[in-house]
Structure formats: structure tokens, C-alpha cells
């Protein structure tokens, strides 16, 4: 079960203070690969826009991932020339890898990125990060598919983009409208917990991050943008689409098997308005009651459909027992996941067995009420039978909820959340070498850009839970 004290649980969102003038509130990352021509005008235009319109201190970080042209030299010159610009180089290619590496070491409370072509109008940048600064949202994305967006691009890219987002909605039940727009932001405390779960290092990085955040219940803010397609884009559409479809399959499989520790991304109690602390009400009871009622209504309808179907082939008693058995299993599974927040396959068989016992108690209560009515009256009226059944079912429902909460899915208090047994096999870290170079103003004394030695960065395997809080990610 989810508990507030679980490792990785996110703190409550708060409005970020203005801070000191020298402390950046926003770090805008520009991932580049062989962009020696487009990089200078992009950085200068972005810097001028932020200087004129952004009310907080900021930083622009150029994340060069394995460029083979003079992009590293250009980035170094820009970092030496403009105080608010820094450069970061990786010797391995991949936009997702570049973003994860830079975001993981940034000290800014709000992290953003945009493509170097600046296809998105910069007037959307402040609306993008404002919900994160105010504490309203966890992530923010620009959307080219919102009704208020104004987009200029060719029919081929329009078709590919809309088809891809339809695939996400159909296969991963994604509710965000645009996964691939290169214009996103995230709060740092969310990134620190979310990024180790993201496996992709390329173009699917954005989609995987958003799907995991949405499934964990984080709030994603969408901003309609004005967007003009870059005709000189070097993105290979076919290869990117193939990799994205492979990523959709991988993430969908992981979500279906419950192998992702999404409990690490939960917000503390009281941060969700549906879970406010009420006087004399145990913590989480309001949300659990709401979920239990919704599941109860749906499972009752499911039971009636099953009973009607089985009744055509067998007697009423057998049809009733079979329909109750199937609907009881579905009811327990739905309450396990939706009402009490238990994820993963571990303990599912035990929960189902306990659920059948609970439903057996309820069945005995309703059957006993009818038997008592029959003993008291030889021929009870039909309206009297219905009244007895309604009262007995209400009592059985209250008893079922109390047994679910206290016995089947008990609150573990300050213990660790429900553990998925698969985590025991992937809770180890591994080392991956990166050759990185960071530039700051005044560091180019030995040349236009300087090299550093190979550095080994400890990172977590994708989709894994930390086992040693002391390890660096």
C-alpha cells in the first residue's frame, strides 16, 4: 500500500520563493547534436527573451551530446561570453541521455528544455513554468494539438504526430495531448525521483516520462503553443517512429505486469484535494470511501449482467452463485488497485482468497435475513422481501468495506509500502562511463574549450527502485 513515509515520496508542492539574485530558479536545457550554425542565434534570442520577461534568475545550459562538428567550441564561447550560459558535453549520443544527465545535476528548482530550432514561440515559456513555480503542477508541456494552438507544418509531420498520440491514447491510456513537442518543464524534486525510472535515452524519453508521471497521479499542465515547423530538421521520422513504437510496447508491458515502482512518486497526504484531512476521520478514508462506492456500483452492474447471462442456461441459485463468484473476484481486484492503492502481483492470490471470505460473509448475511423473514412469516410480501434485502445488503456493504480496510488491505502506518517481489531482482545500481566537460565563464584560459578526464557516473537502471539511499544517481 501507499504510505507517506515510503522512500522517494514527494514533498508537498509549495510556491517557490524569489530567492537570491544569483540563484537560478529556472534552468533551460538546450540539447544539441551537430548544431554549430543554429546554436548561437538560439541561445542569444532565448537569453534576450528571458532577460526581458522572466522575473527570476535563470540559467541556459547547452547539453551537447556527442557532436562531431565545432558545436563544443561554439558552446564554450557562448558560456564564456554570457554569464547565464553554461555548457555540458557528453560523449554519447541521445537527447534523453543529455536531458537526464543535466537535469540530475542541476540545482535549479524548475528544469525545462526546448529544441534548438526554437520552433515554439518563446512567449509560451513563462506560462509553461509558472504552474511549476507556483506549486500548482509537477510537470508542464507545450501542446501543438490543443484547440488554442496555432501550428504551421507539413501534412506528413501532422499525420505522424496525430497518429502517434492516438496510439498512446489507445495503448497506454495517455490523457495528455502532445507527447513529442520539444517544449517541457519539470520540478526538480519530481525529476530526482522520476528520472531513474525512465529507461529510454533517445526521442521516446519524453513520452516515457509523461506516461509514468501520469500513471503515478502527478499533475501535468498543458500550454497551447504557436509552433512553426523547421524544414531543416535532421530528425529521421521512420527510425524515430520505430523506436517510439518499441518504447510503447516496453512501457505498456511494464505497466501491465506491475513491475514499475510508481508508489515512489506519490504525493503526501493532504496534497490532493480529494484526500483532505477531515475532523475525526482516519487518514485516507474519504478517498477510499469514494473509490469503494464507485467500484461497488460498477461491480453490481457487472453482477447483474452475469446473472442475466447465466440464468439462461441454469437455475437461479447456481446462476446467482456463479455471478457472485466472478464479480467478487473483479470487485476485489478493482478495490485492491483503485481504492487501496496496492500495485504489483505479489499477494494478489491471498487478497483474492480474503476477498472471497468477505463476500461469503456478506452472502451469509443476506441469505440469513431472507431465512429469518421466511421463518417469521409464511408468505411475506414481495415489497417486504426487497426491504429486507436492501437493509441486509447495506449492512453487508458496510461490513465489506471495514473488512477490506482492516483485514484485506490494512494501512501499514510507518512501514514501507507494499513491496513488489520483482524489485528484489532489479534493486542494484550499475556504473556507466560518461566523458563530460562543463564550461563556465573564465575557464577557457588554456584554449577556447578545455577537456577533462573520463568520469564515471553512478546511475540507476531504468524502472528500478533505489536500494541504497546513499548512492549517487
Report on the structure:
With about 475 residues, the chain is an alpha/beta fold. It has two domains: about 25-275, Spore Coat Polysaccharide Biosynthesis Protein SpsA, Chain A; about 285-410. Helix content is about 45%, strand content about 15%. It contains twelve helices and twelve strands. It has helices spanning about 40-55, 70-80, 95-105, 125-135, 155-170, 190-195, 205-215, 235-255, 285-310, 315-340, 350-375, 380-410; strands at about 25-30, 60-65, 85-90, 110-115, 140-145, 150, 185, 220-225, 225-230, 430-435, 435-440, 455-460. The strands form three sheets. Strands 8-5-7-4-1-2-3-11 form an eight-stranded mixed beta sheet, with helices on both faces. It has a two-stranded parallel sheet with strand order 6-9. The protein has a two-stranded antiparallel ribbon with strand order 10-12. The longest helix has 29 residues, at about 350-375. The model is unreliable at about 1-10 and about 415-473 (pLDDT under 50). Its main location: endoplasmic reticulum. It is a single-pass membrane protein; Multi-pass membrane protein. Its EC number is 2.4.1.117.
